[in-house]
Amino acid sequence: MFTVTGCAHFVGMRDDMIAMVPPSLPSPGTLVTLTGVLELLGAVGLVWRRTTGAAAAALGLLMVAMFPANVYAATHGLIAEWTDHLVPRTILQIVYVAATALVARHHWSQTKVEEGERAPAGPR
User: How far apart are CA 52 and CA 2, in angstroms?
Assistant: First the structure.
């Protein structure tokens, strides 16, 4: 998902995404480029085990940070599909953020278990 949406920041939907940036934020084109790059980096980070937890957490925070653009689009007639309306988009966003939080938590708990298995036994 993050690979597809990250790519959409550069091709296909770029103009629509720039239009979604609330006017109170500076340089919409730069923000769309930045968030696209961050999504692509996050997608790569998810598949590399050493960075899975951090990438999932960062992507969750990124989705929270980008949510105002979805609200702006839904409340200013910039919607394209039913999923872009405010209520469905909000529900989807909650599901996506929860999923990234679960991945991060699972990864970090697994890492602690693995580190505990490798830790030398202390004095008895």
Answer: 13
